[in-house]
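Morning, I've got a small favour to ask if you have a moment. It would help a lot if you went through both lines with me. I owe you a coffee for this, so here goes:
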Amino acid sequence: MVNHILLQIIKFLSHQVSFSDCIEGRKCAYFSGESYLSVNYLTNSFHTWKTFTIDLWHKPSHLVTVGLLTNGLASTGCCSSPTVSITTTNGQLNSRVALKDRAAQLKGRVVLNKWNYVSLVKDYDTNSMYVNGEMSDQQELKGDLLPSLCPMMFGIGRNQAFFQGQMDKICLYKEALTQQQVSGEYVKLMPNGG
């Protein structure tokens, strides 16, 4: 059984983010392109993890450069470089996991106005990114994660570009999910027709 921390985005309600019906009839966050959600719970511990998986479903309404998540952003008063960030640019998905002296950059593709399931997995010395249950990129990355004193922020990237669209089922696991587990999560929650 995977030991995980489930961050249901609806628990971190912000007056700037509205909620609408999403996957499995639940409510999910709708980002207008001018707001983000901040989760302070992970501020001082995330960079100490040797393994992790970040899962999220998102349905972008614009494919210009937008941020899905980061834990480093100067405009919040926290000037740390991010340990992790995920952005999209014209359908190109880009994730970055930083160590103290270098970073791994992984790529994938997302589709406009459709639900996309993204999993970023760090398993000790390997970084992997999955899109819709399939491996899209992998890179070796040995060493300790870059410390950041910033909270995890959803709906914005380290470049301060806001996400426009919907997000649902954001999960952070303190373990590296296997490809079989990632694929299983995708099949279990895959929306019919996007």
